[in-house]
Amino acid sequence: MSERTSIESRIVDVAWDDTRAASLRDELDADLGFRYEGFHGDEPAERAAARARALAMHPDEIVATLLAVLDDAPVGHVILRRLDAEWEIKRLIVTPAARGRGVARALMRAALDRARGGGAARVILQTGLPQPESIALYESMGFTRIPVYEPYAETMPRSVCFSYAF
């Protein structure tokens, strides 16, 4: 097993439809599909459709799409969006080759800095038990667990949600 060391990536703002960002979101969707396969059990199609609507991203809600770049290659991605009156972190991903090297933490710090600079009192996020690495990261950064919030409470009541207050 090789030892992983911290790497220095650049965090850049990109458009929501940036092809590198879209490719990383596709990679995240594939990973989450694998992790959550069977997690929701045998559920009615209407509930699965409602969950898909709850997870949908609308470009007009997005405050920032941040990309971590190393040697001109995208290695991570996160979105900061407005969810009604809240600021929410979404779609955090780090490529397998860059995991364990501080990229996710750098992306999260950049998203938090952006939210703080935009006047947010706190930031919220939603994840799930099949994502233990994410839960560990959020807890290590000082996020605290909160009750499951909408739009996830109805369709994903077993979500794990967090907030970070400034």
TrEMBL record:
| Coiled-coil residue windows | none
Q: Which Gene3D superfamilies match?
A: 3.40.630.30
Q: Which InterPro entries match?
A: Acyl_CoA_acyltransferase, Bact_Acetyltransf, GNAT_dom
Keyword Signal on entry: no
Record keywords: Acyltransferase, Transferase
Q: Which residues form the N-acetyltransferase domain?
A: 22-166
Q: Name one Pfam family in it.
A: Acetyltransf_1
Listed name of the protein? GNAT family N-acetyltransferase
Recorded source organism is: Microbacterium dauci
